[in-house]
Amino acid sequence: MTTTPEVSPEARFAPRATPETQPYWDATAAGRLDLPRCRPCDQVFFYPRSSCPRCGSTDLEWVTCSGRGLLHTYVVSHRPAPGFPVPTVIAVVELEEGPRMMTNLVDVEPEALELDMPVEVRFEQRTGVAVPVFTPTKADS
Amino acid sequence: MSRDVVIMGAAETDIGKLPTTSTLELHVEGARRALADANLTKDQVDGIASVSIPGPIQVSHALGITPTYVDGTGVGGASFLFHVRHATAAIKAGYADVVLVTHGESGRSRVGASTHPRGNDSVLAQFELPYGVVGPPTSFTVPARRFLHETDNTLEQLAEVAVAQRRWSSRNPRAMFRDEISVEEVLGAKMIADPFTLLMCCLVTDGGGALVIASREFAEAHGSDKPLVHVLGTGEAATSPLISQMEDMTRCRQFTLSSQAAFKESGTSHADIDHLMIYDAFAHVPLYGLEDMGFVGRGESGAFVADGHTSPGGRLPMNTNGGGMSYTHTGMYGMFAIQESVRQLRGEAAAQVDGVETSLVLGNGGMFMSAATLILTNQR
Ligand SMILES: [Zn+2]
């Protein structure tokens, strides 16, 4: 029989920044979701890279995203992962600024999820790093 | 001027649970069997192609071959289709005469499998692994809910893919799973990553195999009496290393790009294909493949499978060995898809389809990361 793994955010996989992603992780630590924007294209893109994936320009700036987005797709994982509850919602969110990113949907029953529902970012503390996760947007927020 | 290129030898190792066989030995045993199938000795081989673990140099050295053409392309389970494409080009260019493409993977028993400690600063580690992703079942599956939402395909039709493939594997004594199953059984199986149940996911097995690629002139002068399988057309493409960064969660662009290239080079069209292998790591992948290669229209793949067109007796037999969900899946399945295509074209498959002249193999690498297409024929 399977046993319920210990639910402990600290035990979860902790990413480590590389020089080109350091500003992203510095921002999450400060409670912001910052992404690069290409000045010639006016495109915000994910994940942080040193040139625009659309036009190749290196004329980039960091912008702070609203943290709002829509639930694009998800699975409800029943496979135990270190530190995570079973089940865990593994999702892709489409940010208001355009790009999509993988994340978890938290503080919601999986049955209550609907594609394209509005979601908003929050940050989960791991060992030395804050990871962006999302939760359904409250009606009056 | 251009040299017609053929697959003149093809063989698999034993498959399933092989706890006393190392990863390297699976490559070597597959190579020995494929060379015997081609009626060649290792000294006639001048080219080697294999993925990064254990790598083409270890494999060729273990076999006692000193290659003067080496391909270590490692782009996931489609790699072996890439190797066939590259070998075809190399032989046409005169860089090699006989290229051995090998696969071996102790996917289940993990014997002699290099276990790279997973770093935590790769792009994947920073932007996907922090979310409880524990391998392909919880990652490759993520686009499917969007695919079902935006097309006319249904969850029941997703289950029909697994049902159809079990009809084929029930006729294949080598297949790991051979009992026919119903849609209800698929949907009621253990939940892995909702909406994917265990029966919509691939197996995890040990096994290997190899191919011998050569010019037609060489094969006719030196080979066995086995029918030659001609490489008519090939294509390859790659898009994103992260599944969350697919341009469109409901389409796999490299399936489209690689198949278009293969059709163009081969001078064939969809109507010419009478046998199809589509890498089925999970039940949704053949549906993407059928639609993105243009065998059916947008949203029509589920009904096509549910109506039996890919099943025994159907007009487009697909994954006739049982596929990765029922036959075998070592982790990089592409070699086994090619092997079944060769068997069908030689007329020696366990679930042989009558009159197969042209077969298309679509390989997937990683999680919608890379793809390659081969169009093969027994006609010349
Ligand atoms: Zn740009």
TrEMBL record, chain A:
Pfam families documented for this protein:
OB_ChsH2_C, zf-ChsH2
**Which top-rank group of organisms is this from?**
Bacteria
The ChsH2 C-terminal OB-fold domain extends over 62-124
Which SUPFAM superfamilies does this chain map to? Nucleic acid-binding proteins
Region spans: Disordered: 1-20
Q: Tell me the InterPro entries matching this sequence.
A: ChsH2_C, ChsH2_Znr, NA-bd_OB-fold, Thioester_dehydratase-like
ChsH2 rubredoxin-like zinc ribbon domain: from which residue to which, for each copy? 25-61
Q: Which PANTHER family match?
A: BLR3430 PROTEIN
Instruction: Please give the name of this protein.
Output: OB-fold protein
Natural source organism? Nocardioides albertanoniae
From TrEMBL, chain B:
Tell me the keywords, alphabetical order: Transferase
Task: Please name the InterPro entries in this protein's record.
Answer: Thiolase (IPR002155), Thiolase-like (IPR016039), Thiolase_C_2 (IPR055140)
* Top-level taxon of origin: Bacteria
Give TM segment ranges. Answer: none
Checking CDD domains in the record gives: SCP-x_thiolase (cd00829)
Instruction: Kindly indicate whether the keyword Transcription regulation belongs to this entry.
Output: no
Q: Name one GO molecular function term.
A: acyltransferase activity, transferring groups other than amino-acyl groups
Query: Does the UniProt entry include the keyword Protease?
Result: no
- Every Thiolase C-terminal domain range: 235-377
Q: Which PANTHER family match?
A: ACETYL-COA C-ACETYLTRANSFERASE (PTHR42870), NON-SPECIFIC LIPID-TRANSFER PROTEIN-LIKE 2 (PTHR42870:SF1)
Know the name of this protein? Acetyl-CoA acetyltransferase
State the organism named in the record: Nocardioides albertanoniae
